[in-house]
Amino acid sequence: MSSSQEDRLLQWLREQLHGDGSDRLGDDAALLPRAETAITVDHQIAGVHFPTGLDPRVVAQRLLAVNLSDLAAMGAEPRYAFLALSSPPDQDMKSFLQALLKATRDAGVELAGGDLARGPVLSATLTLVGGKVPGGRWVRRSTGEPEDRLWLGGPVGQSALGRHLLEGGADFQNSRIQLPPELASDRGLATAARQAIRRHLFPDPQIDLGRWLARRRRAAAIDISDGLSLDLHRLCRESGVGARLHSASLPATTRFLDLCAWLQLKPLDLELSGGEDYCLLFSLPATIRPPHSYGCTHVGELTRDRSILLIEGGGVRLLEPQGWDHLRTTE
Amino acid sequence: MSSSQEDRLLQWLREQLHGDGSDRLGDDAALLPRAETAITVDHQIAGVHFPTGLDPRVVAQRLLAVNLSDLAAMGAEPRYAFLALSSPPDQDMKSFLQALLKATRDAGVELAGGDLARGPVLSATLTLVGGKVPGGRWVRRSTGEPEDRLWLGGPVGQSALGRHLLEGGADFQNSRIQLPPELASDRGLATAARQAIRRHLFPDPQIDLGRWLARRRRAAAIDISDGLSLDLHRLCRESGVGARLHSASLPATTRFLDLCAWLQLKPLDLELSGGEDYCLLFSLPATIRPPHSYGCTHVGELTRDRSILLIEGGGVRLLEPQGWDHLRTTE
User: Fold this and answer.
1) Which of A3, A300, A315, B72 has the smallest number of Cβ neighbours within 10 A?
2) How far apart are CA B202 and CA B281, in angstroms?
3) Is the dihedral of CA A29, A86, B155, B187 positive or negative?
4) Nearest C-alpha neighbor of B46 from the set B151, B129, B119, B152
5) DSSP track, B286-314
6) 3-state DSSP call for residue A33?
7) Which pLDDT value is given to residue A255?
8) Exposed (0-12), middle (13-18) or buried (19+): which is A11, by Cβ within 10 Å?
9) For residue B120, which of B97, B89, B83 has the smallest C-alpha distance?
């Protein structure tokens, strides 16, 4: 009961933050200046969102990235972060906190408060506060209209492939990816596998693309966390529209397809319902195209008819809202 | 992988919320109107902050109360809540959510977003956003001055006594407190025990007192979460002052003292370092007294000399900053 590891750790945190808002850590709550704000909360729990042994520094980066992706989908400017962290007694909180501080700083985000405790497993919840992009507006899920074009901000399916590899014997230790020998020996497959694992562990939130969308006259967006098909259903539901998605337009590299074939996985399943892609799915009026530098792909259209259809090899089928269900029963 | 228990539960939540901001749940982040805000985050983890078998409805109420207490200490008006919840697969999330919805509604708070998952133990993180009290200012820890009077908003030590009883055989099931037979048989002790357990399970955040403080010319405050002595040290450190605390002034009922004697516990230890009291410790210029209706007690003074002293039975000693350390190693 002696005082107080918590106070000492908080003191250390304030020193890390220098002037940089460290003042905000002295009270029972953090004071933020007058502004319209977008707020999002995500958590990452060992054994649920990531394997128990994963490097806490990777967990910290991933936690921030996943939250940033939500703000990107709102076209928001990331500003403040609040952390609730619990970790097992034998785990050093500082490596997690240092990685989070570095990642927040890189993203222009100020760590403005939090709550620390010891708990049975590493469990971290991040609340992120975003502001309006200067000269922009909020991007919503509900502002899509029939005949808008549907765009993807990046590749889908790779992250799920990376998760599959990590569950099947690949590993990430001391900042290095270890592949099973049979995979490591083929240079092309090994490159694809490393890329997929990196994509899974280090999502790349599309904040710049979100800023660009915020400055358009009209755009609707969602970040793909639970799978393209499920998140497309969500966007369409909020906008009161349907969609046609062209499977042939989905961006997939030959390497990704080769690795799927080698693993006997269907690429389209991963692309449609793998989840944790953390790139943006968005709609724009047909007259507007995102700048080439964002690497977006035109993958379909919104429709007045409420059906959500997949166009595949000349055929058409209803696209089921399949994806990652956070409430499914896990081991 | 079928879609999606999560979407169904979110739909249910939106229905519970009616018009009441349910609109905010449709996007990747919640949009809040332009305002200065105070933000606080707290978490409650089974086996760490409460016993594993505790009724999820109690956990929900307690989580909100603990957070509200932080806002009370800032003199803030509670407005929005964001929840990150994970619970074991065999546990019904709805009873937790229903209790939280009721408690937020009672407090005038809107549940504006969240993140749900299955996890190994019940773990809930609440982010609470408060606004400025009309005509008021923020209350800080740093605005205390020498010769200010030091006040306590409620009794201290009872919550720790309640925790001690729950760890030692008392129980709370189906909204009823069960006491060990030897305690249940003495009416006076049993009443004191029930009161202490209620105080521990259902903290009573002093939002109204916080509002009143926000309208004063000057006040400093902190909520006592980790123990009077530790939190007094924090208030003094932020204000750059010392303090004299009069042990004889601490509000304690005869019943509380009798129960402590029966349990062979030192009341002063519980009062000074028991923690989880969730009442306010605050300072005011000597000319201002809180209204009688808030039940506050004048317990000391702030001093120019930086020492923090306990006046006890005519003697004086340095008050150590002892209390609840969230980072201490637990079982």
Assistant:
1) A315
2) 19
3) positive
4) B119
5) TT----GGG--EEEEEEESS--EEEEETT
6) strand
7) 94
8) middle
9) B89
Tokens, residue B109: 């708070």
pLDDT band per the 50, 70, 90 thresholds, residue A18:
low
Rounded to whole angstroms, the Cα distance separating A38 from A149 reads 26
Q: B69 and B99 in contact (C-beta within 8 Å)?
A: no
Helical pair A254-262 and A187-201, crossing angle rounded to 10 deg:
100
Here the tokens at position A171 are 């590993």
User: Is A48 close to B119, i.e. CB distance below 8 A?
Assistant: yes
The residue type found at A222 is I
Residue B190 pLDDT? 96
Residue A163 in contact with residue A275, Cβ under 8 Å?
no
The mean per-residue pLDDT over the stretch B99-123 comes to 90
Q: Does residue B48 contact residue B187 with C-beta atoms inside 8 Å?
A: no
3 state SS of A204: coil
Q: What is the pLDDT of residues B176-204, one digit of tens each?
A: 999 999 999 999 999 999 999 999 999 99
Does the CB of A304 have a partner CB in chain B at under 8 Å?
Answer: no
Q: How far is B53 from chain A (nearest CA, A)?
A: 15
CB contact under 8 Å between B84 and A125, yes or no, is yes
B270: nearest Cα among B158, B155, B150: B158
Contact B12, B94 (CB under 8 A): yes
Q: How many Å lie between the alpha carbon of A192 and the closest alpha carbon of chain B?
A: 25
Kindly indicate the confidence band of residue B331, based on its pLDDT and cuts at 50, 70 and 90: very low
Residues of A within 8 A of B71 (CB-CB) are 28-29
* Cβ of residue B25 closer than 8 Å to a chain A Cβ: no
Mean pLDDT of chain B: 90
Contact flag B84-A321 (C-beta cutoff 8 Å) = no
Examine the pLDDT at B130 and tell me if it is beyond 80: yes
- In the numeric block, which tokens belong to residue A79? 């500003």
Read off the DSSP letter of residue A247.
G
Name the percent of chain B lying above pLDDT 70: 92
Measured between beta carbons, the chain A residues lying within 8 angstroms of B123 are 45, 86, 119, 123
Q: Which of residues 184-213 of A touch B (CB under 8 A)?
A: none
Dist CA A259 CA A144 (whole Å): 35
Provide the pairing of β-strand B308-312 with B242-246. parallel
Local confidence band at B144 (pLDDT 50, 70, 90 cut-offs): very high
* CB-based contact A1 B80, cutoff 8 Å: no
Domain ranges within chain B, ordered by starting residue: 5-132, 149-318
> The tokens of B175 are what?
């909204």
A5-132: CATH topology: 60s Ribosomal Protein L30; Chain: A; (3.30.1330)
Average pLDDT over residues A97-124: 91
Give per-residue pLDDT as tens, B8-55: 777 777 777 665 555 666 778 888 878 889 999 999 988 888 888 899
Token digits for A139?
A: 């991007």
Across B166-180, average pLDDT: 92
Domain A149-318 grouped into CATH 3.90.650.10: yes
Nearest CA in chain B to A140: B27
Q: List CB contacts (< 8 A) between B33 and chain A.
A: 36
Averaged pLDDT, B144-157: 97
Q: Do B326 and A230 touch (CB under 8 A)?
A: no
- B265–A contact, CB cutoff 8 A: no
**If you search the block for the tokens 């009291």, which residue do you land on?**
B277
Give me the mean pLDDT over the B255-278 stretch: 96
